[in-house]
Amino acid sequence: MRANRRHPGAGSRQSAQPRPADYRRLRNPFTPQRVFSDDAVAAMHESALKINETLGIKVLLPEARDLYREAGALVDEDTQMVRIGGEIIAQALESCPRSFRGFGADPQRTVEFAPGTLVFVGGSSCPNVSDLERGRRPGALADYIELLKISQRFDVLQISGNYTEAQDVPVHLRHYAMLRAQLTLSDKMPFVHSRGREQVRDAFAMIRLARGLGEQEFRQAVYAHTMINSNSPRVLDHSMAQGLIDFARHGQMAIVTPFCLAGAMAPITIAGALTLQHAEALAGITLAQLARPGAPVLYGSFLSNVDMRSGSPAFGTPTHMQATLGAGQLARLIGLPWRAGAGTAANVVDAQAAWETQFSLWASVLAGATVCIHAAGWMEGGLTHSYEKLMIDVEVLQMVAELCVAPPADEDALGFEAVATVPPGGHFFSAAHTMARYRTAFYEPLIADTANFGAWQEAGGRTATQRACEKWKQTLSDYTPPPGAAACGEALEEFIARRTEEGGAPPLT
Amino acid sequence: MRANRRHPGAGSRQSAQPRPADYRRLRNPFTPQRVFSDDAVAAMHESALKINETLGIKVLLPEARDLYREAGALVDEDTQMVRIGGEIIAQALESCPRSFRGFGADPQRTVEFAPGTLVFVGGSSCPNVSDLERGRRPGALADYIELLKISQRFDVLQISGNYTEAQDVPVHLRHYAMLRAQLTLSDKMPFVHSRGREQVRDAFAMIRLARGLGEQEFRQAVYAHTMINSNSPRVLDHSMAQGLIDFARHGQMAIVTPFCLAGAMAPITIAGALTLQHAEALAGITLAQLARPGAPVLYGSFLSNVDMRSGSPAFGTPTHMQATLGAGQLARLIGLPWRAGAGTAANVVDAQAAWETQFSLWASVLAGATVCIHAAGWMEGGLTHSYEKLMIDVEVLQMVAELCVAPPADEDALGFEAVATVPPGGHFFSAAHTMARYRTAFYEPLIADTANFGAWQEAGGRTATQRACEKWKQTLSDYTPPPGAAACGEALEEFIARRTEEGGAPPLT
Question: Which of B158, B189, B391, B484 is the most exposed place for a label (fewest CB within 10 A)?
Fold first, then answer.
């Protein structure tokens, strides 16, 4: 079965034509799948509107309550509860853009956010990092920079994630260091934390400096993205509300994702948890549209379940998948581009890490999510970003990207002549039809090893995780900064020096 | 984020209601996905007919050539080439049943084979077995029996596979030992090798004895299945042709799967390899229908690619997935239930083993395959059946099975009242809505561990593969034979003793 025939000339891959898939611009090839009836989806939407209208959401930021009140919502200043009528939400949904583009330093990094596009983002905001050589440790700036450099290498991670927290940098200065790294070491669209107006203002200033944009120019297109998580159930805190307002006013992209776990911060039923999540997402999206109609937002879902024995979050479960498919139905009902997420609760880069991540990745792809966050490296339910898992997940994302190109089916591809030239019981290894294509016919894996057992054992018998370790080290040592990225370094240094002098910007909590 | 709250009363799972999914009877919840246009699929079908009509297939068995000739095919006895006209194939496809049932010892094990049903079969015909405690070794009868017992425990593996070869039993007696084990230790529909008329006749006699069936009764329903692989390109050998004829004449199920690898035994293009595979499958299915119109057959695909650097087979690749999706389109064109397969080339039960298996499993599910073979335990491209991988794959299959049940979306499930009772920032752990459901709300994993890092490390820091090892040992020690299975043992012993006395039945090669 396992042939050992080596293809003549197969050693010289350097002359290979690139595979046809353009990992920077993917369109989802799958038909979005349903898990609920259309009636059930409509009922969830109605119930979410009823939650916002009759129960309301607690909004901690006075400025946000003002915006809601001015739009006609009922605001109780004592309880901070805001009750938002369905017509206010309907109007907000009207003004949301259905598609828009996001820009990095290189025009080649321009990403389209629209129903049907497919964007992957690395695992984000993990407090710890881990690799086979140095072990598990709290994330520091050096780790963040390494993960940024490795991720920069892979086009399939189309925009920057917030891989880990640079916890060795004081919080009032951290955003300078992390954003400087993004702007000088990567040409992808950067991530910016919403940790208060002052930090966001700093970040936008740095991006304008790096991209050479004036204030007006900056507001007219998307150059940065942020993550807005409501505190489920039904709380929108200060920094999140302020982030929504500030990103909207500056025309930058906010991804509005309640962080719900069925059975913990949300009802235990998928339909119930989705309804609560939908209510909170609608409330957040509405705030952005009230701050600036037309502000670019993504609807967000990252709904999974808790393990009812331990109360621990679980990811890549059947519930996670069904919830994601249902979220996709709700996103299509309101017609917005949206995000889902991949992930695992595994504590080591083993088979569980792989199957849970794939399960949730397939959920995201089959649900038609525009953006899949935490798509690489994220493990322990988000507590750790693993260098080896990053590489393994990139392999799988590249495999998904390959599926975005339909295989040729012209007459030559059908290969009747090739079949006619190979006798019964023969082989196609040296057929002209094969020779003309073998260099680029198949995806060439990063990590996967197809050697037979003996050869594999002789080569050291290493697991995929051990091979991934070698691969990230090689990727890191091969790193070269994208052309022009360093050019903005001086202007940024100057800005950061001045702001540091002024005391930096403590986060709003 | 990671809660440590333990659910009150969560220790006592024994009173849990079963989850609603019936793993024995699954319907695929997904819409079959396409990778080719309808025109391209029609062109592949036409090209396959042209291959059969003008190039032909080499058929080694004279009896099979006679059947083809009698139906009007052009047969060259010197070259053994058979050219089959399109109308002969069309007529054969007319007589194929679109759906049928297969029977085990227990009526609860009845399986429906029809477009839209979902049947999983364990990894089959691996020459080696492997487990963490005893290592990798050639498969022996004791291993086969252990894998059979472990697989019997899991309803999601609905019919028996041919887990490994009992290589310590002489080939003329091996089929007695392996089938006796299936019939006395399992109540699932057994697998029978097509290794010549004599062995097949023995096997059918044993099944009739075990099931208490007369010859006529036996022919009227499906009590066994076999695997028919053509030798790609374009050879149907003695034992496969004879198996097709004998299974058809006895009304038993043959799965007709050319074993093609794009770039090796088939054209390097997916469209070309599918066309060759389709041609060979149609030729085999036609032979079965010529032997007995209405014979139960499954159309089969197990098309992947070779690694062009080493010539080794690769599984769970993008090519494997696209080929499987295309095969599903061809199967739907001819309207037959069909099989695909999951698999991996990995040599160890690591992340690669998991991601490749999932990739090919999802291919099978999304392609709408009726039966997914090699769905558990199969690794090294089929050279080894791993005990630990068996358990890990069963976990994932159970997760897929859970997706076959739509989550509730009635008013109570929408949970408005539950949301109303939990204050903003509160939690749902002790809500009545949660308490009423927490025991059965979520799939309870076999192997997956959601403990946080500290707890996981304290408990030994074991990988999923290590936990799977413990789990198969426990499953094996918990094994009890299905009720009534042993009852047929005596009659089988008598039969086997007599046939052994007569010299057994050497395989036809």
Answer: B484
